[in-house]
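Summarise what follows for lecture notes:
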Amino acid sequence: MNGARDVMARDDRDPAIRPQDDLFRHVNGRWLASDPIPADRARYGTFDELADGAERDVRAILEESRGAAPGTEARQVGDLFASFMDEELCEQRGATPLVATLAAIDAVHTREEFVGLVGALEREGLAGFLQLFVDNDPGDPERYVVFVEQAGLSLPDESYYREEHFAPVRTAFLAHLERVFALTGLSDAPGRAARVMDLETRIAAGHWDAVRSRDQSATYNLRTWAQVRALVDLDAWRARLGAPEQSLDEVVVRQPSFAEALGGLLVDGELPAWRDWLSWRVVAGLSPYLSSAFVEAHFDFFGRTLTGAPTQRARWKRAVGFVNGAMGEAVGRLYVERHFRPEAKARMDELVGHLIEAYRQSIAGLEWMGPATRERALAKLATFTPKIGFPVRWRDYSALEVDPGDLVGNVRRAAAVEFDRQLGKIGRPVDRDEWFMTPQTVNAYYNPGMNEIVFPAAILQPPFFDPAADDATNFGAIGAVIGHEIGHGFDDQGSKFDGVGRLEDWWETADREAFEARAARLIAQYDELRPAEAPDQHVNGALTIGENIGDLGGLGIAWRAYQIALGGAPAPEIDGVSGAQRFFLAWARAWRGASRPAEAARLLAIDPHSPAEFRCNQIVRNLDAYHEAFGVAVGDRAWLDPAERVSIW
């Protein structure tokens, strides 16, 4: 994988910062001081460094694919890339791709016509007031069901519409709305902007907050369509989605009170505001694919204002992102052929085995868990399914019509094909081989409905994973990532699912209370943390608790797995650094990262992950092994009294 070893080539440790005080800045201090965030990024770190390499690899694949044989999948992705790269054609067309859709919105005169048009546009990826997705049913994981969740907002989260520190963002958003309406040539841009802002503020008032929306129990509300209709009449919307008739007979309504609030807004008297809102949503959704005036206006707000990134990403980078989104597995198949090392899977299988065994030993010895819950936890652990590298079966994109001279058409057709694919799952057997990330993605995930841990090919490279590295380094980096993803099966939400993916309470009451008491202590720790980039705000411990449990369990179990791998032999010392120290240095290197202030504030509001410095530092403060590895003592800034350290798994 190109450039993989370059990521670890430099020693960015800062000798002026002791690992006993700040492990994150000790390991990454020189890198942080170098002003490392590229101009086209809102944040940057280890994941982004590797993603840049994967992005360059994909670009080479796509450019070569432009010359592939007509009718092949390679040519499809090449033509998609070509359609995005034809900037001259986008300039010539200007706002023309919007004209027919905006005219259709303007022609709407009744509530039913409006609701139906939203459904038709939603199928083509032009977001509406609800968001649909298909997954296996938490109550019956061997069948698929449609999930319906709150949507309709342009700002990142409902808190942006009400919290005082986001007032400057609201002012900028209103100005942006007016600018975009003027660009489209629509009349009364100030009036339209004001109506959209007012309507979205009222939509936001019905939204659940981010903490409540991640509660798997509260958001599992299986309803018949008749029950949905009692909350909000969406019959016309359903009819225009193009969905199979039976696919929406039962749906999971994730936030029922939002659906009811939406029903109160979808009335004839609000139709002028809704028309303006839908016009805005269409323009906003398609702006990245139009002429430079629209692209720049879109980036000016959603990039510069919301995230702080000063410069638009290069066109080829945006083109790669578009193709990855539209035909990700087709690109992934070509990527794997060139860049995935088969030996990586064998080594990963071995590492996963060590992590599973470490969790088994840990659960078997938990002093706070009773025997009945322990038995069920071990049964769930035994059914974990690891997926490594790439899918066993690739997705079929033959239904997608690609025209190298029609970017906006490609965008809308790709969305429609994926929408149809998703709803086409209803009534079919659950496909447990499906992947929800592409192989070229630098990330990993746990899926509670499938009880699976998934590691795409692109993350299996240094500094996360290196077959040539010693065990301490691999266990401290990719081992902790593996442990993190397994840990999601036992975090505050994943622990509500059993081994087959059923949302079921398999805990004894006393054990759940003991677990929640430990989680509450971790929440309190994180509530006190304020990132350097946004010192006037603090981490939301309740929002981030699942990821924090994943980090805490992941690193602790990775340490245990490293001990298992050593088999009782002493860890070798390399260049004067002990095995324990290398383990924690690798962990800190994996979480290298920095954010711009606006992006830090945005992520604190919506992201269930804590800032990188705390994913590193606050976790290690809870581990005895870290204190022992570096001799952390009372008076050191990283010292945490043993009575205050949290251990869950």
